[in-house]
Design brief:
Helix content is 4%, strand content 47%. It has 359 residues and is mainly beta. Strands 1, 2, 3, 5, 8, 9 and 12 form a seven-stranded antiparallel β-sheet that branches. Strand 19 and strand 20 form a beta hairpin. The protein is globular and about 75 Å long. About 1% of the residues have low confidence.
Length: 359
Protein backbone atom coordinates (compact mmCIF):
# COMPACT_ATOMS: atom_id res chain seq x y z
CA UNK A 1 0.00 0.00 0.00
CA UNK A 2 2.87 2.36 0.71
CA UNK A 3 4.24 1.57 -2.73
CA UNK A 4 0.91 2.42 -4.35
CA UNK A 5 0.88 5.68 -2.42
CA UNK A 6 4.36 6.52 -3.68
CA UNK A 7 3.25 5.73 -7.23
CA UNK A 8 0.22 8.03 -6.90
CA UNK A 9 2.46 10.85 -5.71
CA UNK A 10 4.09 10.72 -9.14
CA UNK A 11 1.25 9.52 -11.39
CA UNK A 12 -1.93 10.58 -9.60
CA UNK A 13 -2.67 13.10 -12.34
CA UNK A 14 -3.52 10.13 -14.59
CA UNK A 15 -6.05 8.85 -12.03
CA UNK A 16 -7.73 11.63 -10.06
CA UNK A 17 -10.44 13.60 -11.86
CA UNK A 18 -9.92 11.78 -15.16
CA UNK A 19 -12.51 10.40 -17.57
CA UNK A 20 -12.58 7.55 -20.10
CA UNK A 21 -11.14 8.01 -23.57
CA UNK A 22 -12.89 6.74 -26.71
CA UNK A 23 -11.32 3.33 -26.10
CA UNK A 24 -10.29 1.83 -22.76
CA UNK A 25 -6.92 0.58 -24.02
CA UNK A 26 -5.10 -1.72 -26.40
CA UNK A 27 -2.52 -4.47 -26.43
CA UNK A 28 -1.95 -8.14 -27.09
CA UNK A 29 -3.45 -9.51 -23.86
CA UNK A 30 -7.14 -10.26 -23.44
CA UNK A 31 -8.56 -9.79 -19.97
CA UNK A 32 -10.08 -12.84 -18.30
CA UNK A 33 -13.82 -12.92 -17.62
CA UNK A 34 -15.49 -13.62 -14.29
CA UNK A 35 -14.79 -12.78 -10.67
CA UNK A 36 -11.40 -13.40 -9.06
CA UNK A 37 -9.79 -14.00 -12.48
CA UNK A 38 -7.31 -11.12 -12.45
CA UNK A 39 -4.50 -13.37 -11.23
CA UNK A 40 -4.84 -15.41 -14.44
CA UNK A 41 -3.82 -12.42 -16.60
CA UNK A 42 -0.15 -11.91 -17.48
CA UNK A 43 0.27 -8.54 -19.13
CA UNK A 44 2.86 -7.98 -21.85
CA UNK A 45 4.65 -5.01 -23.35
CA UNK A 46 2.15 -3.10 -25.44
CA UNK A 47 -0.73 -3.58 -22.97
CA UNK A 48 -1.84 -0.04 -22.15
CA UNK A 49 -4.86 1.78 -20.72
CA UNK A 50 -6.08 5.33 -21.34
CA UNK A 51 -7.52 8.13 -19.20
CA UNK A 52 -8.05 11.79 -20.13
CA UNK A 53 -8.36 15.20 -18.52
CA UNK A 54 -8.58 18.55 -20.29
CA UNK A 55 -6.35 18.39 -23.36
CA UNK A 56 -4.22 15.60 -21.87
CA UNK A 57 -4.38 11.90 -22.67
CA UNK A 58 -2.64 9.57 -20.21
CA UNK A 59 -1.16 6.30 -21.49
CA UNK A 60 -0.69 3.85 -18.60
CA UNK A 61 1.66 0.96 -19.33
CA UNK A 62 0.59 -2.27 -17.62
CA UNK A 63 4.06 -3.67 -18.35
CA UNK A 64 6.82 -1.15 -18.74
CA UNK A 65 8.32 -0.91 -22.24
CA UNK A 66 11.93 -1.88 -22.76
CA UNK A 67 11.84 -0.78 -26.41
CA UNK A 68 9.73 1.59 -28.51
CA UNK A 69 6.00 1.47 -27.76
CA UNK A 70 3.52 1.95 -30.60
CA UNK A 71 0.11 3.35 -29.61
CA UNK A 72 -2.07 2.29 -32.57
CA UNK A 73 -5.09 4.34 -31.45
CA UNK A 74 -3.12 7.58 -31.97
CA UNK A 75 -1.96 6.98 -35.54
CA UNK A 76 -2.58 9.57 -38.26
CA UNK A 77 -4.94 7.18 -40.04
CA UNK A 78 -6.73 5.89 -36.94
CA UNK A 79 -7.24 9.37 -35.44
CA UNK A 80 -7.08 11.82 -38.39
CA UNK A 81 -8.94 14.56 -36.49
CA UNK A 82 -6.36 14.67 -33.69
CA UNK A 83 -2.99 16.37 -33.44
CA UNK A 84 -0.37 15.34 -30.86
CA UNK A 85 1.59 18.44 -29.83
CA UNK A 86 3.73 17.09 -27.00
CA UNK A 87 4.56 13.90 -25.07
CA UNK A 88 6.13 13.62 -21.62
CA UNK A 89 6.64 10.97 -18.95
CA UNK A 90 5.06 11.69 -15.58
CA UNK A 91 7.66 12.07 -12.85
CA UNK A 92 10.50 12.50 -15.32
CA UNK A 93 12.23 15.73 -16.22
CA UNK A 94 13.80 14.25 -19.33
CA UNK A 95 12.47 14.50 -22.86
CA UNK A 96 10.56 11.62 -24.44
CA UNK A 97 11.47 10.55 -27.93
CA UNK A 98 8.26 10.29 -29.96
CA UNK A 99 7.06 10.23 -33.54
CA UNK A 100 3.53 10.13 -34.91
CA UNK A 101 3.24 7.74 -37.84
CA UNK A 102 0.31 6.71 -40.00
CA UNK A 103 -0.24 3.50 -38.03
CA UNK A 104 0.49 4.73 -34.50
CA UNK A 105 2.25 7.07 -32.10
CA UNK A 106 5.73 5.66 -31.40
CA UNK A 107 7.05 6.39 -27.90
CA UNK A 108 10.61 5.83 -26.77
CA UNK A 109 11.11 3.56 -23.77
CA UNK A 110 12.07 5.16 -20.43
CA UNK A 111 15.81 5.59 -20.03
CA UNK A 112 15.68 4.15 -16.52
CA UNK A 113 13.82 0.88 -15.81
CA UNK A 114 11.00 1.17 -13.26
CA UNK A 115 9.34 -1.40 -11.01
CA UNK A 116 5.92 0.28 -11.08
CA UNK A 117 3.94 1.10 -14.24
CA UNK A 118 5.00 4.26 -16.05
CA UNK A 119 2.57 6.80 -17.52
CA UNK A 120 3.04 8.85 -20.68
CA UNK A 121 1.16 12.14 -21.05
CA UNK A 122 0.18 13.26 -24.56
CA UNK A 123 -1.12 16.78 -25.23
CA UNK A 124 -3.83 16.78 -27.89
CA UNK A 125 -5.56 19.19 -30.24
CA UNK A 126 -8.55 18.55 -32.49
CA UNK A 127 -11.31 16.00 -31.98
CA UNK A 128 -11.87 12.26 -32.08
CA UNK A 129 -14.90 10.04 -32.66
CA UNK A 130 -14.96 6.48 -31.31
CA UNK A 131 -16.58 3.76 -29.23
CA UNK A 132 -19.41 2.95 -31.62
CA UNK A 133 -22.27 0.90 -30.22
CA UNK A 134 -25.33 -0.34 -32.10
CA UNK A 135 -28.10 -1.09 -29.64
CA UNK A 136 -31.21 -2.96 -30.77
CA UNK A 137 -34.58 -1.59 -29.76
CA UNK A 138 -38.16 -2.67 -30.27
CA UNK A 139 -38.49 -0.35 -33.27
CA UNK A 140 -35.04 -0.53 -34.83
CA UNK A 141 -31.60 0.62 -33.68
CA UNK A 142 -30.06 3.23 -31.46
CA UNK A 143 -26.54 4.11 -32.59
CA UNK A 144 -24.18 5.82 -30.16
CA UNK A 145 -20.59 7.04 -30.29
CA UNK A 146 -18.30 9.19 -28.15
CA UNK A 147 -17.12 12.53 -29.56
CA UNK A 148 -14.35 14.38 -27.70
CA UNK A 149 -13.14 17.93 -28.40
CA UNK A 150 -9.57 18.82 -27.39
CA UNK A 151 -9.57 22.31 -28.90
CA UNK A 152 -9.96 25.58 -27.03
CA UNK A 153 -12.89 26.47 -29.30
CA UNK A 154 -16.33 24.87 -29.75
CA UNK A 155 -16.91 22.10 -32.27
CA UNK A 156 -19.91 22.14 -34.61
CA UNK A 157 -20.55 19.46 -37.23
CA UNK A 158 -23.20 17.24 -38.78
CA UNK A 159 -23.28 13.53 -37.94
CA UNK A 160 -24.52 11.30 -40.77
CA UNK A 161 -25.67 7.76 -40.10
CA UNK A 162 -26.36 5.09 -42.70
CA UNK A 163 -28.12 1.90 -41.65
CA UNK A 164 -28.61 -0.21 -44.76
CA UNK A 165 -30.70 1.93 -47.15
CA UNK A 166 -31.71 4.38 -44.39
CA UNK A 167 -29.84 7.67 -43.83
CA UNK A 168 -30.37 10.06 -40.93
CA UNK A 169 -28.46 13.20 -39.90
CA UNK A 170 -28.27 15.49 -36.91
CA UNK A 171 -26.14 18.49 -35.92
CA UNK A 172 -23.61 18.00 -33.13
CA UNK A 173 -22.05 20.74 -31.01
CA UNK A 174 -19.44 20.48 -28.26
CA UNK A 175 -17.96 23.23 -26.09
CA UNK A 176 -14.18 23.64 -25.96
CA UNK A 177 -12.28 20.89 -24.12
CA UNK A 178 -15.37 18.75 -23.59
CA UNK A 179 -16.85 15.40 -24.49
CA UNK A 180 -20.30 14.27 -25.50
CA UNK A 181 -22.26 11.47 -27.09
CA UNK A 182 -23.58 11.30 -30.63
CA UNK A 183 -26.89 9.43 -30.57
CA UNK A 184 -29.19 8.68 -33.49
CA UNK A 185 -32.27 6.46 -33.68
CA UNK A 186 -33.15 4.55 -36.82
CA UNK A 187 -36.52 2.84 -37.34
CA UNK A 188 -36.37 -0.68 -38.78
CA UNK A 189 -39.28 -3.04 -39.45
CA UNK A 190 -37.82 -5.89 -41.49
CA UNK A 191 -35.62 -8.64 -40.07
CA UNK A 192 -32.04 -8.61 -41.26
CA UNK A 193 -28.38 -7.85 -40.68
CA UNK A 194 -27.80 -4.17 -41.45
CA UNK A 195 -24.44 -2.48 -42.16
CA UNK A 196 -23.97 0.66 -40.05
CA UNK A 197 -21.73 3.64 -40.88
CA UNK A 198 -21.42 6.83 -38.81
CA UNK A 199 -19.49 9.79 -40.20
CA UNK A 200 -18.51 13.18 -38.78
CA UNK A 201 -16.42 15.57 -40.94
CA UNK A 202 -12.72 15.27 -40.23
CA UNK A 203 -13.12 11.93 -38.44
CA UNK A 204 -12.51 8.36 -39.47
CA UNK A 205 -15.90 6.78 -40.26
CA UNK A 206 -17.07 4.25 -37.69
CA UNK A 207 -18.59 1.07 -39.06
CA UNK A 208 -20.50 -1.79 -37.50
CA UNK A 209 -23.66 -3.76 -38.02
CA UNK A 210 -27.06 -4.04 -36.47
CA UNK A 211 -29.21 -7.11 -36.02
CA UNK A 212 -33.00 -7.02 -36.11
CA UNK A 213 -35.18 -8.20 -34.44
CA UNK A 214 -33.94 -8.51 -30.86
CA UNK A 215 -33.98 -12.13 -29.69
CA UNK A 216 -34.17 -12.37 -25.90
CA UNK A 217 -33.83 -15.84 -24.36
CA UNK A 218 -35.19 -14.82 -20.96
CA UNK A 219 -38.73 -15.73 -20.02
CA UNK A 220 -40.41 -19.05 -20.68
CA UNK A 221 -38.39 -22.28 -20.58
CA UNK A 222 -39.10 -25.94 -19.77
CA UNK A 223 -37.48 -27.73 -16.83
CA UNK A 224 -37.13 -31.33 -15.64
CA UNK A 225 -35.31 -32.79 -12.64
CA UNK A 226 -32.89 -35.64 -13.25
CA UNK A 227 -30.51 -36.57 -16.03
CA UNK A 228 -30.95 -38.36 -19.35
CA UNK A 229 -28.73 -37.80 -22.43
CA UNK A 230 -31.76 -38.17 -24.71
CA UNK A 231 -33.14 -34.91 -23.32
CA UNK A 232 -30.78 -33.04 -25.66
CA UNK A 233 -32.59 -34.34 -28.77
CA UNK A 234 -34.55 -31.69 -30.69
CA UNK A 235 -37.52 -34.00 -31.43
CA UNK A 236 -38.01 -35.02 -27.79
CA UNK A 237 -41.59 -34.90 -26.52
CA UNK A 238 -41.21 -32.40 -23.68
CA UNK A 239 -44.89 -31.54 -23.35
CA UNK A 240 -44.98 -32.87 -19.77
CA UNK A 241 -42.00 -30.79 -18.59
CA UNK A 242 -42.54 -28.00 -16.09
CA UNK A 243 -42.94 -24.48 -17.46
CA UNK A 244 -40.59 -22.04 -15.70
CA UNK A 245 -39.46 -18.43 -16.08
CA UNK A 246 -35.72 -17.76 -16.35
CA UNK A 247 -33.40 -16.50 -15.07
CA UNK A 248 -34.15 -17.90 -11.63
CA UNK A 249 -32.55 -20.57 -9.45
CA UNK A 250 -34.29 -23.93 -9.55
CA UNK A 251 -34.87 -23.64 -5.82
CA UNK A 252 -37.01 -20.59 -6.68
CA UNK A 253 -38.88 -21.82 -9.76
CA UNK A 254 -39.28 -25.48 -8.76
CA UNK A 255 -38.40 -25.81 -5.06
CA UNK A 256 -35.61 -28.16 -6.16
CA UNK A 257 -33.45 -27.96 -3.01
CA UNK A 258 -31.42 -31.17 -3.02
CA UNK A 259 -27.60 -31.11 -3.37
CA UNK A 260 -25.46 -33.01 -5.89
CA UNK A 261 -28.30 -33.21 -8.43
CA UNK A 262 -28.92 -32.78 -12.15
CA UNK A 263 -31.57 -30.91 -14.05
CA UNK A 264 -32.30 -29.97 -17.67
CA UNK A 265 -33.69 -26.87 -19.38
CA UNK A 266 -35.18 -26.67 -22.87
CA UNK A 267 -36.38 -23.76 -25.01
CA UNK A 268 -37.62 -23.40 -28.59
CA UNK A 269 -36.65 -20.33 -30.59
CA UNK A 270 -37.19 -19.27 -34.22
CA UNK A 271 -34.15 -17.76 -35.95
CA UNK A 272 -35.08 -15.34 -38.78
CA UNK A 273 -34.48 -16.64 -42.29
CA UNK A 274 -32.76 -13.32 -43.09
CA UNK A 275 -29.86 -14.32 -40.82
CA UNK A 276 -29.12 -17.40 -42.94
CA UNK A 277 -25.47 -18.33 -43.36
CA UNK A 278 -24.22 -16.63 -40.19
CA UNK A 279 -22.92 -18.31 -37.07
CA UNK A 280 -24.75 -17.29 -33.89
CA UNK A 281 -23.47 -16.23 -30.48
CA UNK A 282 -25.94 -16.97 -27.70
CA UNK A 283 -25.86 -15.73 -24.08
CA UNK A 284 -27.02 -18.37 -21.60
CA UNK A 285 -26.47 -16.42 -18.39
CA UNK A 286 -24.90 -17.66 -15.17
CA UNK A 287 -25.42 -21.33 -14.35
CA UNK A 288 -24.78 -22.94 -10.96
CA UNK A 289 -22.57 -24.97 -11.12
CA UNK A 290 -21.67 -26.85 -14.34
CA UNK A 291 -23.42 -27.01 -17.70
CA UNK A 292 -23.29 -28.67 -21.10
CA UNK A 293 -25.39 -26.85 -23.70
CA UNK A 294 -26.88 -28.16 -26.95
CA UNK A 295 -28.42 -26.62 -30.07
CA UNK A 296 -30.68 -28.94 -32.03
CA UNK A 297 -28.95 -31.86 -30.30
CA UNK A 298 -25.42 -30.69 -31.13
CA UNK A 299 -23.19 -29.80 -28.20
CA UNK A 300 -22.11 -26.15 -28.50
CA UNK A 301 -20.27 -25.67 -25.23
CA UNK A 302 -19.51 -26.73 -21.68
CA UNK A 303 -18.33 -24.79 -18.65
CA UNK A 304 -16.91 -26.76 -15.71
CA UNK A 305 -16.63 -30.50 -15.21
CA UNK A 306 -19.31 -32.99 -14.19
CA UNK A 307 -18.74 -35.65 -11.51
CA UNK A 308 -16.62 -37.59 -10.75
CA UNK A 309 -14.15 -34.79 -11.56
CA UNK A 310 -16.47 -31.96 -10.59
CA UNK A 311 -15.45 -28.37 -11.17
CA UNK A 312 -18.05 -25.61 -11.06
CA UNK A 313 -18.14 -22.05 -12.38
CA UNK A 314 -21.28 -20.66 -10.81
CA UNK A 315 -20.34 -16.99 -11.39
CA UNK A 316 -19.24 -17.16 -15.04
CA UNK A 317 -21.69 -15.99 -17.74
CA UNK A 318 -22.04 -18.58 -20.49
CA UNK A 319 -21.67 -17.36 -24.06
CA UNK A 320 -21.52 -20.05 -26.74
CA UNK A 321 -21.12 -20.01 -30.52
CA UNK A 322 -23.51 -21.91 -32.75
CA UNK A 323 -22.26 -22.90 -36.25
CA UNK A 324 -24.59 -21.84 -39.04
CA UNK A 325 -24.68 -25.44 -40.25
CA UNK A 326 -26.70 -26.59 -37.24
CA UNK A 327 -29.15 -23.67 -37.27
CA UNK A 328 -32.60 -24.06 -38.81
CA UNK A 329 -33.03 -20.56 -40.24
CA UNK A 330 -36.63 -19.49 -40.53
CA UNK A 331 -37.74 -22.43 -38.42
CA UNK A 332 -37.89 -23.61 -34.84
CA UNK A 333 -34.67 -24.51 -33.03
CA UNK A 334 -34.22 -26.25 -29.66
CA UNK A 335 -31.79 -25.17 -26.95
CA UNK A 336 -31.13 -27.81 -24.27
CA UNK A 337 -28.95 -27.30 -21.18
CA UNK A 338 -27.75 -30.06 -18.85
CA UNK A 339 -26.92 -28.68 -15.38
CA UNK A 340 -25.25 -30.16 -12.31
CA UNK A 341 -25.45 -28.41 -8.92
CA UNK A 342 -23.20 -29.48 -6.05
CA UNK A 343 -24.71 -27.49 -3.19
CA UNK A 344 -26.40 -24.19 -2.47
CA UNK A 345 -28.32 -22.50 -5.28
CA UNK A 346 -28.63 -24.25 -8.62
CA UNK A 347 -29.78 -23.79 -12.20
CA UNK A 348 -29.78 -20.88 -14.63
CA UNK A 349 -30.11 -18.26 -11.93
CA UNK A 350 -28.96 -15.02 -13.58
CA UNK A 351 -28.52 -13.30 -16.95
CA UNK A 352 -27.59 -11.98 -19.35
CA UNK A 353 -29.91 -13.91 -21.69
CA UNK A 354 -30.05 -11.24 -24.38
CA UNK A 355 -29.42 -10.49 -27.16
CA UNK A 356 -28.69 -13.35 -29.55
CA UNK A 357 -25.96 -12.11 -31.90
CA UNK A 358 -24.51 -13.15 -35.25
CA UNK A 359 -20.79 -13.50 -35.86
Amino acid sequence: LLGIGDWLQVNGEAIYGTRPWVTYGEGPTKDAAGKFSEADVKYQEGDIRFTRKGDKLFILCLKNPTHDLKVVSLGKRTAPGLEVTDVSLLGSGGKVKWERQDDGLVLGAPATPADMPVVYQATLKGAILGNLSVLPSAGGFQVRADLQNYDDRPLAADADLEVGPITVSRPVTLPALSAGEVQLDVPVTEAGLYPVSLTVPGQRPLTGRGLFPVLDLSGGWLFKEGDDPSWAKPDLDDSAWQKVTLPASWETHSNYTADNVYGWYRKKVVIPAEWKGHDLRIPLGKIDDTDASYWNGVKIGQTGEFPPHFQGFWDKPRVYDVPAGVVRFGRENVIAIRVFDAYGGGGLYDGPLSPVEVK
